[in-house]
Structures are given as C-alpha cells and as structure tokens.
C-alpha cells in the first residue's frame, strides 16, 4: 500500500512502506486528523484482503461446479485513491473523496458462467453526526458516515462502496455469453451482493 500526504509520519511526498502502515485501511481512523492535514492515501490490496467482499464472492460462486469456479479470484485487485479535506462552512466537517477500482469474480446472470467484472466506483463521504447533517446544504451529494456510532475503518467504507456500486444483475457483454439459461434457473440462484445491498438500503431508510 502506498501512502502519500502532507506531514504523514514526517514524509511529505515520498511513498511510505513501513510495516506498521500495512494495516492502515483496517485500523480505526480519525477523520478530522486526516482532513486537517489534507491526507492523500493511495492503496492497492486484493479481494482476499477484503473479508466482507471475499465472503460475498464465496457465496456467489458456491452454486457452481468446482471445476467451473475461477481459481485465483482472491488475487483480484482492489485499489484506488482517497483524499481528505475540510468542507467549507461553519463546522468545517471532515470529508473524503476518491475512487476504488476493483476486479470482482461473479456469475453472469444470462449464461450462469463466472467472469471477472471490472468496477470503478466513486467515493464521496462526509463524517458528521445526524443532527449536523440535516442542517448543511454543502453536504448534498455526499454519503454521510456518522461519527461515534460505530468504530469504522477505511476498509469498511471501501467495501460498502463496492457492495453499493455492484450491478444488480451482473452479466457479460452480450457477445461474450456462450449459452442461455432459462429465466426460472436464474431466479433460483443465490445473489448475495443483491441481498446485502437490499438489506443496507433498508437500514438507510
């Protein structure tokens, strides 16, 4: 993982690879601290490093014959860039913008064969409490992560962004599907990404 940013561990511009920083994404973090120094984080991990995504993909592929499952799907890249800043306004709330690029193995909903789906998902988050979130117009367009409710990590945000950005019915390009499966077969298939996204939507309402 590459980490860059102003005054980050006394390294202004150069990448920093110290072992203590390897677990930065999974550690609890302080949004205000990172935003105050305009921290920039460039990360590169794998699907296998993302426990939540790994669990979902395993369920997604479980219905396939073992010989039809991709072998090295956990090596799929999950990488991106996150930039912290303070929003203009009375309370100077910490915010984070960036993107995540990931290659996730899944099952085509047309031909029921596995394939690797490339995703590029924008991330735009502001960290605040629900009371402050309801009073500021500058928060429009941001996802709200409430401070002090649970202990979150950057990896939590990255994984939730992947889940929410995953297509409801992933499929090959139509020219890459080599067979057709009857609709009732597709209906009975397990779709853990969709199930989790639906549950998360209900919590947000």
Supply the key terms.
alpha+beta, 25% helix, 26% strand, 205 residues, elongated, single chain, 6 strands, 6-stranded mixed sheet
Structure, explained:
The protein has one domain (2-204). It has helices spanning 31-36, 51-61, 130-133, 154-165, 183-187, 192-204; strands at 2-4, 40-46, 77-86, 94-107, 114-128, 143-146. Strand 5 (114-128), helix 3 (130-133) and strand 6 form a beta-alpha-beta unit. A 6-stranded mixed sheet has the order 1-2-3-4-5-6. The radius of gyration is 19 Å and the shape is elongated. It is α+β, with helices and mostly antiparallel strands and 205 residues long.
Strand content of the residues, in percent? 25-35%
Helical fraction: 10-25%
The number of distinct β-strands equals 6
Low-confidence stretches: 5-22
- Looking at the structure, what is the overall shape? elongated
User: How would a crystallographer describe the biggest sheet?
Assistant: 6 strands, mixed
Question: Structural class of the secondary structure composition?
Answer: alpha+beta
End-to-end separation in angstroms reads 35 Å
Mean pLDDT level: 77
Q: Kindly report the spatial arrangement of strands forming the biggest sheet.
A: 1-2-3-4-5-6
Helix count?
6
How many independent structural domains? 1
Order of helices and strands: EHEHEEEHEHHH
Strands, helices and their partners?
Layout: E1 2-4, H1 31-36, E2 40-46, H2 51-61, E3 77-86, E4 94-107, E5 114-128, H3 130-133, E6 143-146, H4 154-165, H5 183-187, H6 192-204
Parallel strand pairs: 5-6
Antiparallel strand pairs: 1-2, 2-3, 3-4, 4-5
């Amino acid at each position: 993982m590459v980490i860059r940013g102003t005054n980050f561990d006394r390294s202004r511009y150069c990448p920093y690879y110290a072992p203590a920083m390897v677990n930065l994404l999974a550690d609890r973090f302080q949004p205000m601290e990172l935003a105050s120094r305009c921290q920039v984080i460039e990360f590169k991990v794998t699907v296998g490093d993302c426990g939540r995504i790994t669990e979902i993909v395993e369920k997604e592929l479980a219905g396939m014959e073992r010989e039809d499952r991709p072998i090295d799907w956990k090596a799929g890249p999950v990488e991106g860039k996150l930039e912290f800043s303070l929003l203009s306004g009375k309370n100077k709330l910490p915010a984070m913008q960036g993107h995540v690029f990931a290659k996730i193995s899944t099952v085509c909903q047309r031909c029921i064969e596995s394939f690797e789906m490339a995703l590029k998902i924008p991330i735009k988050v502001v960290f605040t409490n629900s009371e402050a979130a309801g009073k500021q117009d500058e928060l429009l367009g941001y996802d709200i992560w409430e401070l002090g409710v649970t202990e979150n990590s950057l990896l939590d945000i990255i994984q939730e962004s992947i889940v929410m950005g995953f297509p409801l019915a992933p499929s090959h390009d139509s020219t890459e599907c080599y067979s057709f499966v009857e609709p009732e077969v597709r209906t009975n298939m397990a779709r853990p990404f969709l199930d989790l996204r639906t549950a998360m939507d209900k919590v947000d309402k």
